[in-house]
Amino acid sequence: MTSKKPETTFRDQLEARKRGSTIQVLFKVARLLDESAVARVSKRQGSTKLRRSHTSLLPHIALEGTRVTDLADRLGISKQAVSQLVDDLEEVDLVKRVVDPDDARARRVVFTKRGRESIFEGLAVLGELEHELETLVGEVQMKHLRSALLKIHDHLVPPPSGA
Fold first, then answer.
1. Domain co-membership, 123 together with 145
2. Bridge-partner residues for 111, per DSSP?
């Protein structure tokens, strides 16, 4: 009888622990779905070539606009890195920098008309992926998953100030 190499044993144990962690599986599935969505958007004719770094930034841009410093804080990266991502997205007319109405010295990143339209295009791609997953796991399980995720979301997102 041959014994497993220590590295193989560690790898097996690590993989088992990861698969036993619901949150680890959630992180991995979210990354895989994000990669799939970005690839699909990129394949569409006339679509902008987005990278995952762009898609990680987009959800943090409020419709009324968000300062680069706030985006950097939310993403945990430097202002320079966020500025580069914003530059990339400005080049393809998805966002623009505008004067902050609260402080004329500052700028906010806002979605352009094309950027707002692209949000709906992206949501359509997510809808396609969701339909495929529903076919895989079933309608009832998808409804349960959505319900559980929304409950977790609402628990983690602080209520609006003044509420």
1. yes
2. 95
